[in-house]
Specification:
With about 400 residues, the chain is α/β, with parallel strands linked by helices. It has eleven helices and 18 strands. The strands form three sheets. The protein has an eight-stranded mixed β-sheet, sandwiched between helices. Strands 3, 4, 7, 8, 9 and 10 form a six-stranded antiparallel β-sheet that branches. Strands 1-2-6-5 form a four-stranded antiparallel β-sheet, with no helix packed on it.
Length: about 400
């Protein structure tokens, strides 16, 4: 036998031993999963949502044992029934009314669930929705475009007001350098009831909107701070509160002025004068920022309310009890007062009442009353227009 043949036989022998040992290990290893077991644990998923070439969107949900599955989506006023195929996959194809980002969920035998095949989730304390991102032929301000992008950071600060650490998100624009000497104006942006500190960028797309506006020269570079406006769930968990005071604004105002602003001004390159601070909010957040902003025009020269939760005669009451500053102080301090609300919003009439009250008091303000309800679709339009006006 030649030396070359001996080498070949040696290699074959070694390979045979390795293969045998691996097979023996796999058979003897406790807890080893077979291919069939893995397939049962991780069944093939379905594609949902699927954005079709004709502009329609197909939603799918795998539930072979379900009796009824509906699509609940803010594209439509009512749920739409889905149909089940022979594999137990429920589906429906719909035509969106317009390109936008639509919250949706499936109602499975009466239970609302998110889409398990969609990683885009609506951050909320209560309902759990997924997001359908319907793009148009031309990118909108809320869409990711080929422009310099800013950064979203998750930060934590210690709140002496409530006695524990609290989260917030911070947007810094493209080019922000903490080591530079450039200081930036700040927008404090507040979510609605049951939303969270993540909602303004995950649903409101404030980071994409500002990236695109700034790149086109339509907005000033700014830092955006998104605090968690509702401390009560954590306070109740710790035994520090027995209920949620959702309509109260004192704790929110104190948190912003005493905790959030000092944290931001210590950790970021920001300008600290009132003319470089704006505060804006949606729904309950609109109520909170009116109290904080109109109550402290020496701290904020830009106050912007989107469908604020103001009811009855609360406007006059807030001026009378000192929640808001005196009208003449507001008139002489604010550079921008903004009020917007959809005409189908359940808060539209109260927004009109606030609009009329501001007119009677001689407080100049800009308004935007488009069609649509109490939705984040409208909020994205509101913040897009407001961002163009800030710090100019």
């Amino acid at each position: 036998m030649t030396k070359h043949m001996k080498k070949i036989f040696l290699i074959i022998a070694i390979a045979t031993c390795v293969l045998f040992n691996n097979q023996t290990y796999a058979q003897e290893r406790p807890g080893a999963l077979t291919g069939r077991q893995l397939a049962a644990m991780f069944p093939p998923g379905v594609k949902s949502p699927e954005y079709n070439a004709d502009g329609t969107v197909t939603f799918r949900f795998q539930a072979p044992n379900a009796h009824k599955v509906d699509l609940n989506c803010q594209m439509f006023e009512e749920n739409k029934a889905m149909t089940k195929d022979e594999k137990g996959v429920w589906s429906i194809t719909v035509t969106p009314p317009a390109p936008d980002i639509y919250p949706y969920c499936f109602v499975v035998d009466g239970i609302q669930v998110t889409d398990p095949n969609n990683v885009s989730i609506f951050p909320n304390e209560g309902f759990k929705n997924s997001l359908a991102d319907v793009r148009g032929p031309v990118p909108d301000f809320q869409d990711m475009q080929d422009v310099p992008h800013g950064k979203i950071s998750y930060r934590y600060y210690h709140s002496k007001n409530v006695g524990f650490d609290r989260p917030l998100c911070v947007y810094t624009p493209a080019g922000y350098d903490p080591k530079s000497k450039e200081d930036y104006p700040v927008l404090y942006l507040v979510h609605g009831m049951t939303d969270t500190y993540e909602t303004w960028f995950k649903v409101g797309r404030i980071n994409m909107i500002l990236d695109n506006l700034i790149s086109q020269g339509l907005a000033k570079k700014m830092i955006v701070v998104m605090p968690y406006a509702n401390p009560y769930p954590e306070m109740m968990r710790r035994g520090l509160a027995t209920r949620m005071d959702m309509m109260g604004t004192d704790l929110f105002t104190k948190e912003i002025l005493d905790e959030v602003i000092p944290f931001i001004e210590t950790n970021y390159r920001v300008r600290s004068e009132a003319g470089s601070r704006a505060i804006a909010g949606f729904s309950l957040g609109g109520r909170q920022i009116l109290a904080c902003g109109l109550g402290n025009p020496d701290k904020f020269n830009y106050v912007c309310a989107f469908a604020p939760a103001i009811f009855g005669n609360e406007v006059s009451t807030s001026f009378d009890d000192g929640t808001y500053a005196k009208p003449d102080v507001i008139r002489s301090s604010l550079k921008l007062m903004w009020l917007s609300c959809g005409t189908s919003d359940f808060l539209y009439q109260t927004s009109l009442a606030l609009h009329n009250s501001l007119n009677e008091l001689g407080i100049e303000h800009k308004t935007m009353f488009p069609e649509g309800g109490h939705t984040w679709m409208n909020c994205r339009d509101f913040i897009t227009e407001v961002a163009k006006l800030l710090f100019k």
